[in-house]
Amino acid sequence: MAERIDLAIIVLVLIGIIVSSGTMVYTTTVVGNLSTLTSDVSTLTGNVLNLTSTIGDFTTITLEAIVSLEARLAAMEAALAKVTLAKKTLVVGTTDSVEKTLDPAQAYDYFGWCILQQIAGTLVSVKPGSETGADFVPELAVSWNYSEDLDVWDFNLRQGVTFWDGTEFNATHVKYSFDRAIALIPSIPEGAPAGLGYDVIINRTEVLDTYKVRFQLNFPFSPFLGILACRASAIVNPNYAPIEEVEYTAGDPRASTPVAFVGPYFLSEWKRVAGRDIEIKLDANPFYWNATGEYPKTEHVIFRFYSDPSTLRLAVEAGDVDIAFRHISPTDVLDLEGKPNVKVWWGTGAFIQYLCFQTKRAPFNDRRVRVAVAAALDRSTVCETVFLGLSDPLYSIIPPGMLGHTEAFKKLGDANYTLTRSLLADAGYNETNKLKFDLWYESSGHYPMSAEQCLVYKEALEASGVIDVTLKSADWASYKKNRDDEIMDAYIYGWYPDYVDPDDYAFLYWASWIHTNYYNATQVALYDQARATTNTTLREELYAQIDDIAVEQCSVVPLYVSSAWAVTRPDVYGIYLDITQDMRYWLIYIGK
Question: Which residues have a Cβ under 8 Å from the Cβ of 25 and sit 6 or more positions away?
Answer without folding.
Answer: 80, 83, 85
